């Protein structure tokens, strides 16, 4: 199949040709001034081939005239073929999969994924409208899902609970109830799968907060916009209790997503002083006040509540999307306070931040491919506008290229399946 066209625009040529190389090199030849072509048997055979090409090119009459003009800088080989005198041709390293895969700089594997699971206390699963393919799992369904993920080579999962309204409060005390939903689920997962999976937990008050905030809200209205303040130090104390309850239940990794100042060091000390020096801390280091968390908040019913007291957004603790240098300040603190890994969140719109942390810190970096990013891919794929498998795997690979070692993604199990196919 020959496809292509040539046109004359203000004295210069624009040549759009498909990747059919042999044919296109012939197509270039016709652009040479005819006077310079040899009148030989070779040349007439060549001319015949050219006209075959031309018929395929569906040139218009105007374009035929235009082709008599010479093109500045292009040379001719001895046989009359067009020659771009170019020694370095990067395409040579892309010419077949054997070479491409040899020089490939990044690969994404199931081992890189952390699989987030929404869980609730009801006795059947519930679909999440804005996150097709994700569900709020019952305990039993969660256990099954963990098993399926592990079977695909995903050895890290993270739990996000939807907590019944009657257990929520401003101080979120349910978050450290040793008999609460999450501690009991952690111990069930650990007793069923033991060492074949790392159970990660979210450390933040929002699933347990009746204000829909990651921290406790003051009643003094001395905060942003005349609303309550998100109390930093009082919240850190709750987070320490929460992390400890999770560690006691068997959590392998605790991941504070709250963005309070000083919480990494405080949680490290709380864990260590209770004997949990082996429990890892993955710090949400650069967590932005992002609009991409919408579907997640639907899933957990955890959005900031409309009230005269609660601030309507999380901008006084999560980072401003306009900033990048602040991410370095956070990274320096989290590293110094004992974090084992640094997380950037959201992922796709923040690849520059992943790269920035990768280049300026020495801890592993993880990217959170958040709910809104997932929803966008799903929505476009459902409409047939993109190929879901290809865009999802490309997205995950791009996190690696940007510098992420680990990727927290709702696609984890599915992507692992695709990679294992
Ligand atoms: C809250 C938390 C959020 C997410 C993970 N942990 C929401 C928020 O900060 O409001 C969002 C994840 C996602 O959108 O997928 N501690």
Whole-Å distance between the termini?
A: 32 Å
Radius of gyration: 29 Å
Q: For the report, how would you describe the main beta sheet?
A: 8 strands, parallel, barrel
Structural class: alpha/beta
Shape verdict: globular
Describe what is shown at a glance.
It holds the Pfam family ALAD. The protein is an alpha/beta fold and 421 residues long.
Task: Show the helix and strand layout.
Blueprint: E1 4-9, E2 12-17, H1 21-29, H2 41-57, H3 61-66, E3 75-76, E4 82-83, H4 97-103, E5 113-120, E6 126-127, E7 135-137, H5 139-151, E8 156-162, H6 181-193, E9 198-203, E10 216-217, E11 230-231, H7 232-249, E12 253-256, H8 263-273, E13 280-287, H9 294-300, H10 325-336, E14 341-345, H11 351-360, E15 365-369, H12 371-382, H13 388-402, E16 406-409, H14 412-420
Parallel strand pairs: 5-7, 5-8, 5-16, 8-9, 9-12, 12-13, 13-14, 14-15, 15-16
Antiparallel strand pairs: 1-2, 3-4, 6-7, 10-11
Please tell me about this protein's structure.
The chain has an 8-stranded parallel barrel with strand order 5-8-9-12-13-14-15-16, surrounded by 9 helices. The model is unreliable at 1-39 (pLDDT under 50). The chain is globular. It is of the alpha/beta class. It is built from 14 helices and 16 strands. The chain has helices spanning 21-29, 41-57, 61-66, 97-103, 139-151, 181-193, 232-249, 263-273, 294-300, 325-336, 351-360, 371-382, 388-402, 412-420, and strands spanning 4-9, 12-17, 75-76, 82-83, 113-120, 126-127, 135-137, 156-162, 198-203, 216-217, 230-231, 253-256, 280-287, 341-345, 365-369, 406-409. It has one domain: Aldolase class I (TIM Barrel). Ligand PBG binds next to helix 9. Ligand PBG binds at residues 202, 204, 206, 214, 257-258, 293, 296-297, 314, 370-371.
